[in-house]
Amino acid sequence: MNTQSVSVTAFAPLKALRTTAPLSAFLALSLGLVGQQAEAAKDAGCEGGGFSVSLPSGTLAGPTETVVPASSVGASFLVQGKFVTFEVDAATLGVRNYTMTGAPNPLDMTGGVPTTIFASKTPNLVGVTLNSDLTVEIAGTDVLLQRNGPGVSMKIQAKDCAQGGIFQMEPARADGTTTDFTHVLADGVFFFDNPNFRNPPPLPICTPPDFTPQCYPVPVTPRINFANDLSPRFVGRDSPQVATRISQSGNVSVWRVASGGRMGGVLGEDSVEVGFPPTTCVQNCQAQNRVRGKFPVLGFPFPVPDASRLAPSSP
Each residue of 190-230: pLDDT tens digit? Predict the structure, then answer.
């Protein structure tokens, strides 16, 4: 697949470096991390959600805003929610075994079956190890994790919901260089070129503020989604901002992300909806691209035709 630049935001991102504002101010500016974006997780999909963070020194639960000493962080730790769970590598803030739990919810995509989506989401920090204290902020359904190393900062923002724009990772480098992210899908999950975005319904392009389900806010362009063969509602996509796709196969995607850019993920209906891309932004970014009208949802075919599936990478 040809390399292409993509700008899609799942979050109202925070500054690249640790803010000194209290958690209440953070929430006022970025309520729910995802909730102020067009790709926001729907409220019903988040009901009862909330994370805990299990560290060698003990388990943190919300609401909390704390700094864990580097000596108590350990090599890895578990982020556990009602709908989402994942492991975090402390040295990189890379993620392993990003899993939907299948907990009952009207927006559940898994049919009640625990479903691991990503085997790993790994940033290449080019030999740098994150070794600072770990910042942990938990409130409601949201968690923020941040850690620094020599010349680099990594941040994870996540939301415990059954679907929506509920995850992102953000690198920041003192020298302004890029960071490569490698996403490896779990067994049974595959990337595909969504045919519904290749042959969309012949709707007109509409202009603000007249956005309706009967028109497109922007021209429909090809879209890579991921799915499996078990759950007819299960679908998602990588959601980067200020990033270039370096390579793509049926089970691996590699992205080069600008310092202050972000690598997110969108699940469910929002991942197959036609919507605006965001403005290019790497600092003090705000939710500028939200349109309150309902965009057309093009969906995806299930089962996904073999001809639309990308070939897996070689072992």
Answer: 999 999 999 999 999 998 888 888 999 999 999 999 999 99
Distance of alpha carbon 123 from alpha carbon 109, whole angstroms:
27
CA 225/CA 271 separation, integer angstroms: 7
Confidence at residue 280, expressed as pLDDT on a 0 to 100 scale: 67
Taking the C-alpha atoms of residue 272 and residue 297, their distance in angstroms, rounded to an integer, is: 6
What pLDDT score does 248 carry?
96
Whole-number Å distance between alpha carbons of 231 and 90: 32
Instruction: Give Cα 10 distance to the centre of its chain.
Output: 6
CA atoms of 259 and 201, how far apart (whole Å): 38
**What b-and-e string marks burial along 288-309, b requiring 16 or more CB atoms within 10 Å of the CB?**
ebeeeeebbebebeeebeeebe
Q: What is the structure's pLDDT at 33?
A: 36
Instruction: Give the 3-state DSSP-derived string for 35-79, with helices as H, strands as E and coil as C.
Output: CCCCCCCCHHHHCCCCCEEEECCEEEECCEEEEECHHHCCCEEEE
CB-based contact 169:154 (threshold 8 Å):
yes
Q: Which residues of the chain have pLDDT under 70?
A: 1-42, 278-293, 314-315
What H or E segment, with its residue span, contains residue 95?
strand 95-100
**CA of 268: how far to CAs of 31, 108, 115, 169, 272, in Å?**
21, 9, 14, 19, 7
